Structure formats: C-alpha cells, structure tokens
C-alpha cells in the first residue's frame, strides 16, 4: 500500500471515529502541513467545518461554540506558531471546563530541531492546561494502526467530556505528500453501528446515611446561605429553589448561575447582594452559620469580602466531580456529587418542620428589595453604562443567550440582571477572566443558530476585531453591544486610579478609534443611540436584522465611576436608614 492510501485511511478512520463519538463541528485554520486533517474533515458528511484564518480567533470561536452547545469542538491547525496561537483559548477552556480537541499538525521527527521551517517543539505545548496529550504515530493503515487511531479518537472525545470537561491535545506528524485520495474504497473504514469505544458514566450520589448526617448538621443551625456561582446546568434552578424554600434560606445567585433566569420560583433569590455587601456594617449584620456553594466562585468582590470575614462559618462546596475551586482558603467541606440529586436528597431527608430563624430570610429579602428598587430606577433617559445594560436586559429576546465580556461588562450584568421568567442563557469566559477572544467566542456561540447578544467593552472589542470576519463569512446572526468609554474603565474603580501621573498611559489606555469603519468593513450594520429610549428601539431593530449588528454606546469613564458610586452609596444609605436603625 502506498503512502497516500495509508495516510488517507489512517486520517479517515480517525475523523470518522470522532463523528461516531459525537463530534459535530471542527474549526479549521488554513495551512499546508494540516492538509490531511483539513481535507478529510471537510469531506466527512456528518461534521460541519468552520474555516477561521487566525488561529487565536479560531480557538475562541470553537470555545464559544462548545460553551453554547456543551459538546466537544475540534480545532485543526498547521505546525509552528499556528499551534501556539491556540494557547489563550486552551487556557480558558481548561479553567472554565470546556471540551475542546486541539489537533495540531507537525513536521515528522526527522525535520524537528534541525532548522526546518515552521517547526517548533509541539510536544506538550500546552503544558498542564490540557487534560491529556498524545503524540500520534506516523500514519499507517494496518489493522493494528486503524484500531489504534480509532481508539485515540474515541478516547479524546471521552477525555474532553468526562469528569470536569476540558481540552485535549493530539499532535500529528505528517510526511509529504500530504493530499489524501478520497476515491479509495471504504474510505471511512468498515461500517460500524456504534463508536469503537463506548463509555457509560453514572451520576454521583451521596450515600443515604451521609445525606442524613449532612441534613441534620445543616438544620441544627439557623442562619444558612445558599450560593450559586457560575455554572451551566439550566435544570439546577428548579431544585435549588425548592431546597431554599424548604429550609428558609436566601440564594445568592451569580449572574452566570442560570438561576436568575427561567421559569422556576424566584422567591428566595437575592440578586442585589453585590450592592449591599460592599458595606462593612451590613456584612456584619448578615453573619452566617454556614454557606453552601454550588458552582464556581461568584463574580462579586463584595461577596469575596463577606466570605473572608466569616472564616468561622461552616463552608460547603458542591462539585459534580473532583476539583478545587476555593480561592479564599477557609476551612471547607467538599461534596463531590451531582448537585441536582444532592438537593433532591436533602429535601427528602429534611425534617417536616425545618428549624428556621424567622427573621433571617426576611432580612435578606428586605435588603434585596431596597437594592432592586434603586437598580430598577437608576436613571431616566441618560445613557450611562449601567443604564445601557439595564435596557439591554429589558428587551433581550426570550430563549436566547447573552455572552458577557469581562471587566465592567460582567459587573454591570451582576448589578442589573434581575430575576426574570425569560429563558436566557448566560455565558462568559470566566476561567481566566481575560479580555482576549471575546468577539470570536460570542460569534462561535451564535454559530449554533441560537440567538446571541454579545456585551463587551471597547478594549475587548478592539482586542479581537478580526473575529468579526467569521460573522461576515458565514452570515452568522449576532447583536453586539459595545460600551465605549475610550479605555479600560474597570481601572477607574481600582487603586491604580490614584496614580494620576501614569494612569492614562498605563491603565486608561484610550483608543480614540472610530469603530464604524471597521464594522462596515466586515459587512455589519452600525448604530449609535444617544438616549436610553433610543437604545431600546435600536436593540429591537437589531434583533430583527440578519447578520452582524453592532451597537456602540459612548460613555465617559469618570462620569461612569461617579454614577456607580452614587448608586451604591444611595443603596447603602437607604439600608442604614430603614434597616440598621431599626435594629
């Protein structure tokens, strides 16, 4: 058998096994050495290929698509620095537990470390930021090697999805010639009804005795707090709210928890905790006996202070699988179990008359009501950053997704996303919390066909402008709301702002860019409303448009800082006046 046929059969069986194991999408960046993979993926009838020229953008496009669908997405690139450009997306995927399969083409072994072009050391290129790495064998088409390559494909999918999801890296050395021959018989190998390997994973459930012990321990104290941080299970809301109502507990729901949105009960949900936990006196009033957290650490820094100041409270962290996400360092019990099953078991194990502190939940609800009163009426027609986010959340379509950028964007969503019966999925790159790749991530999520609104700042938008090409090339529908305060607005809230001599050059970093020209270059429609009511109308108009729609809201960083501070101070003052003085 000649080289070309061996190469073709080897790669075709690999790609076919990925498809049989559940892969539906691959993001390909053009290059020569990756020709066997790229062409074979494009040939396979059950896999959709997306061609993204820049590998960094491609990595984040795949990340966004995988986040939206909760399915693995493959990335294919050539050798050399092409593979290195995946690194930021790989890090984010690992930190935020997103299944990516990085397939990097490489020079064969005899061309490594000899000065050959486009050859770098790609072995374990991503270090500990992948769940698994494998250097693939050179292509052969013996029965043994066909079994080998199918095994590696099946294992890659399983490893990416099992336990805490994450990225996997396979490195493919290829010798020339590189072009496959798709005319050979039985191109995809022997027809198999099932994948070559099948894994059956069960849901983790605590033993009945341990559930009873945990339930009795928690119910022996009165002032508990349920916290739901960033997580993706949209079914958790139903059961976690039932547990909170059974035990009379508040739920501090992060905006990315999927708990503030949906059809489940919102009676015990506290959305405004970030606003009122900024105040030391209020935090002292709310000292808990225990905290039980589901999902990752919440976005709110005020909540971080709250946890740090209560090291004596019993703390429980519930994770689906083995992992460690407890940045505070308090004494903690980790519960590795399916959170839905755990909540259901705790409800069933609870005493009929659960012991409660009759003033605990009403106190949280009263504070939350005050915070919501101010955030609901934060301004009138002035188009501030917070008002822009509030107006967006009013009109965003039901059964859609909101992809949120980091820095100020996610913090404003934390403040202004109030409970709603709309089915809105909240997505963000909160693994490494970077601003890179946000445009590509949002467009990748929108490529699934689910309506997506991307909310981000001007620096994040600028950082990934070339990500807009995918929306143009594939006619992907997405609405992007850019909050442009001409620089890094988040730094105005940090201690660096007091260093006036160097602040603007090093932290403020004003861009002074006219985004309209770039948006039109990528075939998008551009809108710049001047008043808050105008934004409502523009958003509704954009949701009816096809393709790329970008709305730019221009604000002033200093005014934004003052506006936020006045809002938080007003909330604190009202609480001190109506609650603290009544104690």
Automatic annotation (TrEMBL):
<keyword id="KW-0808">Transferase</keyword>
<comment type="function">
    <text>Catalyzes the thiamine diphosphate-dependent decarboxylation of 2-oxoglutarate and the subsequent addition of the resulting succinic semialdehyde-thiamine pyrophosphate anion to isochorismate to yield 2-succinyl-5-enolpyruvyl-6-hydroxy-3-cyclohexene-1-carboxylate (SEPHCHC).</text>
</comment>
<feature type="domain" description="Thiamine pyrophosphate enzyme TPP-binding">
    <location>
        <begin position="441"/>
        <end position="553"/>
    </location>
</feature>
<comment type="subunit">
    <text>Homodimer.</text>
</comment>
<dbReference type="Pfam" id="PF02775">
    <property type="entry name" value="TPP_enzyme_C"/>
</dbReference>
<feature type="domain" description="Thiamine pyrophosphate enzyme N-terminal TPP-binding">
    <location>
        <begin position="14"/>
        <end position="124"/>
    </location>
</feature>
<comment type="pathway">
    <text>Quinol/quinone metabolism; 1,4-dihydroxy-2-naphthoate biosynthesis; 1,4-dihydroxy-2-naphthoate from chorismate: step 2/7.</text>
</comment>
<keyword id="KW-0464">Manganese</keyword>
<keyword id="KW-0460">Magnesium</keyword>
<dbReference type="InterPro" id="IPR011766">
    <property type="entry name" value="TPP_enzyme_TPP-bd"/>
</dbReference>
<comment type="similarity">
    <text>Belongs to the TPP enzyme family. MenD subfamily.</text>
</comment>
<dbReference type="InterPro" id="IPR012001">
    <property type="entry name" value="Thiamin_PyroP_enz_TPP-bd_dom"/>
</dbReference>
<dbReference type="Pfam" id="PF16582">
    <property type="entry name" value="TPP_enzyme_M_2"/>
</dbReference>
<dbReference type="InterPro" id="IPR032264">
    <property type="entry name" value="MenD_middle"/>
</dbReference>
<dbReference type="GO" id="GO:0070204">
    <property type="term" value="F:2-succinyl-5-enolpyruvyl-6-hydroxy-3-cyclohexene-1-carboxylic-acid synthase activity"/>
</dbReference>
<dbReference type="Pfam" id="PF02776">
    <property type="entry name" value="TPP_enzyme_N"/>
</dbReference>
<comment type="pathway">
    <text>Quinol/quinone metabolism; menaquinone biosynthesis.</text>
</comment>
<feature type="domain" description="Menaquinone biosynthesis protein MenD middle">
    <location>
        <begin position="218"/>
        <end position="404"/>
    </location>
</feature>
<keyword id="KW-0479">Metal-binding</keyword>
<protein>
    <recommendedName>
        <fullName>2-succinyl-5-enolpyruvyl-6-hydroxy-3-cyclohexene-1-carboxylate synthase</fullName>
        <ecNumber>2.2.1.9</ecNumber>
    </recommendedName>
</protein>
<keyword id="KW-0786">Thiamine pyrophosphate</keyword>
<dbReference type="InterPro" id="IPR004433">
    <property type="entry name" value="MenaQ_synth_MenD"/>
</dbReference>
<dbReference type="InterPro" id="IPR029035">
    <property type="entry name" value="DHS-like_NAD/FAD-binding_dom"/>
</dbReference>
<dbReference type="InterPro" id="IPR029061">
    <property type="entry name" value="THDP-binding"/>
</dbReference>
<keyword id="KW-0474">Menaquinone biosynthesis</keyword>
């Amino acid at each position: 058998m000649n080289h070309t046929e061996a190469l073709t059969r080897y790669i075709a069986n690999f790609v076919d096994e990925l498809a049989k194991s559940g892969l539906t999408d691959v993001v390909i960046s053009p290059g020569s050495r990756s020709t066997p993979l790229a062409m074979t993926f494009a040939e396979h009838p059950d896999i959709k290929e997306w061609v993204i020229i820049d590998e960094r953008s491609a990595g984040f496009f795949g990340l966004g698509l995988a986040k939206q669908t909760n399915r693995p997405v493959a990335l294919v690139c050539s050798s050399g620095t092409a593979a290195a450009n995946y690194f930021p997306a790989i890090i984010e995927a690992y930190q935020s537990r997103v299944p990516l399969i990085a397939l990097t083409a490489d020079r064969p072994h005899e061309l490594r470390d000899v000065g050959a072009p486009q050859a770098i050391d790609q072995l374990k290129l991503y270090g500990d930021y992948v769940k698994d790495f494998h250097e693939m064998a050179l292509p052969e088409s013996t029965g043994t090697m066909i079994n080998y390559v199918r095994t590696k494909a099946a294992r890659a999918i399983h490893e990416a999805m099992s336990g805490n999801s994450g990225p996997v890296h396979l490195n493919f050395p290829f010798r020339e010639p590189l072009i496959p021959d798709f005319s050979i018989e039985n191109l995809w190998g022997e027809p198999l009804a099932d994948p070559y390997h099948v894994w059956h994973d069960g849901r983790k459930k605590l033993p009945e005795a341990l559930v009873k012990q945990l339930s009795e321990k928690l119910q022996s104290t009165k002032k508990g707090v349920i916290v739901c941080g960033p997580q993706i299970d949209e079914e958790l809301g139903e059961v976690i709210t039932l547990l909170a109502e059974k035990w009379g507990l508040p739920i501090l729901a992060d905006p990315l928890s999927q708990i503030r949105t949906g059809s489940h009960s919102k009676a015990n949900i506290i959305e405004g905790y970030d606003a009122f936990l900024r105040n030391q006196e209020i935090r002292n009033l709310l000292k808990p006996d225990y905290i039980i957290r589901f999902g990752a650490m919440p976005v709110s820094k005020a909540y971080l202070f709250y946890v740090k100041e209560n090291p004596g409270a019993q703390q429980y962290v519930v994770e689906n699988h083995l992992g460690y996400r407890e940045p505070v360092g308090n004494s903690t019990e980790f519960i590795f179990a399916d959170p839905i099953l755990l909540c259901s078991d705790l409800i069933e194990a609870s005493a009929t008359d659960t012991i409660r502190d009759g003033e605990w939940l009403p106190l949280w609800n009263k504070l939350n009501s005050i915070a919501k009163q101010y955030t609901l009426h934060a301004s009138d027609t002035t188009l501030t950053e917070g008002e822009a986010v509030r107006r967006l959340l009013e009109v965003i379509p039901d059964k859609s997704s909101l992809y949120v950028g980091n820095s100020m964007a996610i913090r404003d969503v934390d403040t202004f996303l109030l409970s709603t019966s709309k089915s809105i999925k909240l997505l963000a790159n909160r693994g490494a919390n970077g601003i890179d790749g946000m445009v590509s991530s949002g467009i990748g999520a929108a490529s699934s066909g689910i309506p997506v609104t991307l909310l981000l700042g001007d620096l994040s938008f600028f950082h990934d402008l070339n990500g807009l090409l995918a929306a143009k090339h594939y006619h992907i529908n997405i609405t992007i709301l850019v909050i442009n305060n001409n620089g890094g607005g988040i730094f105005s809230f940090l201690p660096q702002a007091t260093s006036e001599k160097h602040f603007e050059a090093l932290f403020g970093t004003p861009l002074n860019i006219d985004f309209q020209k770039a948006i039109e270059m990528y075939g998008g429609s551009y809108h710049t409303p001047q008043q808050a009511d105008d934004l409502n109308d523009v958003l509704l108009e954009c949701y009816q448009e096809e393709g790329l729609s970008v709305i730019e809201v221009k604000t002033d960083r200093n005014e934004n800082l003052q506006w936020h501070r006045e809002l938080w101070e007003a909330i604190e003052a009202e609480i001190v006046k109506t609650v603290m003085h009544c104690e």
